[in-house]
C-alpha cells in the first residue's frame, strides 16, 4: 500500500502570494525545494493499482501531472473549505474513458454543501455527464478494495473527517484540519502504519493542530510512522526535520511512502 503526498501546504501555500518578489517564504528557505508547498491532498494506492484521492485542492491539476496520476477510482473529502475542494473541476479528465462516474464520499454536511456549490459535478448538466457519484459515509465499510473507517474531528467551530484506509495488510490514516485530539481519533488511528497529521505551526492555533498537538496524537495512537502536513511558511523543512522524533517525517510535495 502506498501513500503519495500531492500537496502539504496551508490554505495559501508556500510561498504565499504577497508584496515580496517571488512570494513570501516566511522562515522557509526558498532554496530548499521541499519548502515549496501546494495545498493539501493525498492519494492512497493499493498493490493492484487502485487509487483513492482525498480532497480536491485548488492545485489538483498540477499535482496530478507532477505525480503521473492518470486515473482515480474514488474521491473522499474531509470537509468543504476552499483549500480542500476548489480543484474539484480538475476531476473531469478522470471521468474520461470510464463507464460511469467516479465514486465520491463525505460526511453528511459536507455532501450537502458540495451538492449545493458544485451541482454539475454530481448531477451532470447541459449534456455533460455526471463526474462523481456522491454519497454519505454512514454505511460505508469498503471502497474499491480498501477497508474504510472514519470519525469526525473538531476543526474550530466546524468539523473535518478523519479517515483510515486498509489494504494489503497495511493501514494509512489521514487527519488534517483538527483543533483537538479526541478519544475517537486515537482509537481510529491505533497502531496505524502511516498517519498523515495536520501540523500548521509551532504555536497553538484556534482551528488547526500545532506541532505539540500533532505529536500528541501520533504518540497516543502508537503509530508506526507519522507524516506532518498542512505546514505554513514558519515551518522550514530542514529545521523542523531536526526537531521531530525519528518515527516522524516532515511531509513535502511529491513524497511517496510504502506502508
From TrEMBL:
CDD domains: metallo-hydrolase-like_MBL-fold (cd16279). Gene3D superfamilies: Ribonuclease Z/Hydroxyacylglutathione hydrolase-like (3.60.15.10). Residues 38-230 form the Metallo-beta-lactamase domain. This is MBL fold metallo-hydrolase. It comes from Novosphingobium anseongense.
Amino acid at each position: 500500500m502506498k501513500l503519495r503526498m500531492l500537496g502539504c501546504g496551508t490554505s495559501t501555500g508556500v510561498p504565499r502570494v504577497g508584496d515580496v518578489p517571488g512570494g513570501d517564504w516566511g522562515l522557509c528557505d526558498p532554496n530548499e525545494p521541499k519548502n515549496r508547498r501546494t495545498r493539501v491532498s493525498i492519494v492512497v494506492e493499493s498493490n493492484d493499482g487502485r487509487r483513492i484521492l482525498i480532497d480536491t485542492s485548488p492545485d489538483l491539476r498540477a499535482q496530478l501531472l507532477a505525480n503521473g496520476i492518470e486515473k482515480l477510482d474514488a474521491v473522499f473529502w474531509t470537509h468543504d473549505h476552499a483549500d480542500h475542494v476548489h480543484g474539484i473541476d480538475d476531476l473531469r479528465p478522470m471521468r474520461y474513458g470510464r463507464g460511469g462516474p467516479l465514486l465520491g464520499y463525505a460526511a453528511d454536511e459536507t455532501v450537502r454543501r458540495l451538492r449545493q456549490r458544485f451541482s454539475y459535478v454530481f448531477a451532470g448538466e447541459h449534456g455533460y455527464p455526471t463526474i462523481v457519484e456522491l454519497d454519505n459515509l454512514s454505511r460505508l465499510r469498503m471502497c474499491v478494495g480498501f477497508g474504510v473507517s472514519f470519525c469526525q474531528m473538531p476543526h474550530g467551530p466546524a468539523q473535518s473527517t478523519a479517515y483510515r484506509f486498509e489494504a494489503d495488510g497495511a493501514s494509512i490514516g489521514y487527519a488534517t484540519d483538527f483543533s483537538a485530539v479526541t478519544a475517537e481519533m486515537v482509537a481510529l488511528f491505533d497502531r496505524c502504519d502511516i498517519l498523515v497529521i495536520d501540523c500548521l505551526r509551532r504555536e497553538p492555533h484556534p482551528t488547526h493542530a500545532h506541532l505539540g498537538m500533532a505529536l500528541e496524537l501520533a504518540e497516543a495512537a502508537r503509530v508506526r510512522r507519522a507524516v506532518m502536513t498542512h505546514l505554513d511558511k514558519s515551518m522550514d523543512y530542514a529545521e523542523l526535520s531536526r526537531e521531530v522524533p525519528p518515527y516522524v517525517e516532515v511531509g513535502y510535495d511529491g513524497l511517496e511512502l510504502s506502508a
